[in-house]
Design brief:
The chain has eleven helices and five strands; from the N terminus they run H-H-E-E-H-H-H-E-H-E-E-H-H-H-H-H. With 238 residues, it is α+β, with helices and mostly antiparallel strands.
Length: 238
């Protein structure tokens, strides 16, 4: 899947966050970039906790709304969440969808509409331990073009990986890069090509690519965009 410039930029901003507050701020930048007004991360029950309720982990919604959503086990009866939890594919929802009509949703629909939250998309994502989550982007906009939905899904997955790292106090046991490998990654993050980096250090383009491939292998990445994002997240580069 092609990595867009927007995806790379937003992933880098997420990777650079130092705490959960900054992480949510970065996630809200993602939300706004795709035309949504609110974002919520929900952890789904599973495994030994399969009979527990979904849990709101982080949200840009007002705290009063979050409290209303979670009281008296409301999340467990939410048809929007049930739809998202029933599939491994992104699921769109709308307050106008009769299939999602429920007493609790009907009761809250006027308040949600007043907030500009009439529809959204639930993105299924898994953390490093395999725990299932839903990332709900909500607002009042049309369905995303498929390319944008793919892009948002990849960013959401990356966002959860960053959040998982923050919860664990940062990544452990990371593979160290040599000084020259770090230099190459750092300049790549600044938008330099292999040819331009080669000119900077008076080395061949082949040598630059060798450093890059070594760094990609050491950090268990698949391409340069992922390498840069992970290097920022691991605090290897600024």
């Amino acid at each position: 899947m092609v990595t867009t410039e927007r995806q790379a930029r937003l992933c880098q901003e997420l990777s650079a966050t130092a705490d959960k507050i900054k992480w949510l701020e970065a996630l809200q930048e993602v939300m706004r970039a795709f035309g949504y007004a609110y974002v919520t991360l929900i952890r789904l029950p599973g495994g030994q906790n399969s009979f527990s309720l979904p849990t709101i982990i982080e949200s840009s919604l007002p705290i009063a709304v979050v409290n209303a959503m979670t009281q008296n086990g409301a999340l467990g009866d939410c048809l929007v969440i049930k739809r998202g939890a029933s599939s491994m594919m992104p699921q769109y929802w709308s307050l106008e969808d009769p299939a999602l009509a429920s007493p609790s949703l009907l009761e809250a629909s006027d308040a949600l509409k007043a907030m500009g939250m009439t529809s959204g998309v639930m993105l299924p994502v898994h953390d490093m331990s395999g725990t299932r989550h839903l990332m709900n982007f909500a607002g009042d906009r049309d369905v995303l073009p498929q390319a944008c939905l793919n892009e948002l899904s990849m960013i959401a997955l990356h966002a959860l990986q960053v959040y998982d790292d923050l919860c664990q106090g940062g990544a452990k046991g990371r593979s160290p890069l040599t000084k020259r490998e770090l230099d190459v990654v750092r300049w790549t993050a600044q938008g330099k090509t292999s040819v331009e980096i080669a000119d900077l250090f008076s080395i061949s383009e082949h040598t630059v690519n060798a450093y890059m491939n070594n760094a990609i292998r050491k950090l268990d990445c698949v391409n340069r965009a992922q390498l840069v994002a992970k290097a920022i997240r691991l605090r290897l580069i600024n």
